[in-house]
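Now read the record:
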Amino acid sequence: MEYISNSFGMYSEEGDKRVGAIVMSAIEGKCPWNRVMWRLDHLELEFEAATDTAVSEAVWERFS
């Protein structure tokens, strides 16, 4: 059965957790928005969906 995220739109629970960690670091003030996007770009090397529009929109919604 394929994993369906309820929070960031990733295809795996691990990917979702990794995106969540990026978002939390931004919320805690450790990471500005441009760094969030940079980290998502690098996460794409492991999790292809990390730069999908749905993921970016979910991240932005949580970030703002």
